[in-house]
């Protein structure tokens, strides 16, 4: 098994995903739904008292999430999404928690209609996605990569 295939297997990314950029032998992938899922999980943990302790299941965010460019409706959707993640998903290990692998695979495949997602999480992700749509994707990684 090649190192690239092993990385894709460990990260849970589909092998056919298009790279955001490639530098030498490294390919960087960016996916709006997966970025959203991980950001909401980390944001939920950032609210918790144990969020900055070794007990935290998510690493600390690199800085505060900026909501100043969001409309009132987007802020409500964003807050509801973090609330949902805090109450339903953040207590589970992101990789190995009950149902989290199936959730991750559905998100990685971009298939929010799978049973692992459910109607409630699907609605949360669809409402919150526009909040980060302008900050995620190919242009986020490409300018920082050096060839």
List keywords for this structure.
two-stranded antiparallel ribbon, 147 residues, 2 strands, disordered C terminus
> Could you tell me the number of beta strands?
2
Q: Gyration radius, to the nearest Å? A: 16 Å
* Overall pLDDT confidence: 77
Helical fraction? 40-55%
Number of domains: 1
Strand residue content: under 5%
Strand order of the largest sheet: 1-2
Describe the structure.
By secondary structure, this protein is mainly alpha-helical. It has one domain. Helices cover 48% and strands 4% of the residues. The protein has helices at residues 3-11, 32-47, 72-89, 100-108, 118-132, 138-141; strands at residues 21-23, 26-28. The chain has a two-stranded antiparallel sheet. Strand 1 and strand 2 (26-28) form a beta hairpin. Helix 2 packs across helix 3 (72-89), helix 2 (32-47) packs across helix 5 (118-132) and helix 3 (72-89) crosses helix 5 (118-132). It is globular, with a radius of gyration of 16 Å. The model is unreliable at 1-16 and 136-147 (pLDDT under 50).
